[in-house]
Amino acid sequence: MAYLLMFVTLLHLITLAILFIATMEKSWWVWEGMENSDLWYNCRFDNFTGTWLCASSKETEWLQAVQVLMVLSVVFSSVSFVVFLGQLFTMSKGGLFYFTGLCQVFAGLAAFSAALIYTLHKEEILQDSRELTSGRFGYCFILAWVCVPLLLCSGVIYIHLRKKE
Fold first, then answer.
1. Each residue of 113-122: pLDDT tens digit?
2. SS3 state at 126
3. Which residue among 42, 99, 119, 160 is the one 20 to 30 A from 33 at the CA level?
4. Strand 35-37 with 51-56, pairing
5. Quick one: pLDDT at residue 32?
6. What pLDDT, on a 0 to 100 scale, did the predictor assign at position 102?
7. Which chain regions cross the lipid bilayer (predicted)?
């Protein structure tokens, strides 16, 4: 039982870290030639100064939906972890971690919705950027998709997990 508890806690922390990186880093869409776009900024690498020059992304309804859903996913997963720690020390023997599991499932569904919206509406989201055919999805986009099954699986595990002493 102790190993399962450590596994679930470690899975939750890893998923939360990946989710946070996917939300905050600057690589949802990458073009050849040192240019990328994320949920917040469009950035170009300036070879002369050796720095990244970033400008705010143009706010579209689809981009705002992706931003909100990714932030909501991070919030749900963070609340889930805090509630799990609280339940671990206060819940009676035999209790189930329903609320923790539901928060994780909601975080997974929010991340799924955000990644799906970005996949289907990348043309509208990146409308004022360079030609999309010379670009590809970046690692943060892939991390968001990796988080979806991890969040859903950990949510299901939490729902079935019982506290034993």
1. 999 999 998 8
2. coil
3. 119
4. unpaired
5. 78
6. 94
7. 6-24, 68-89, 95-118, 139-161
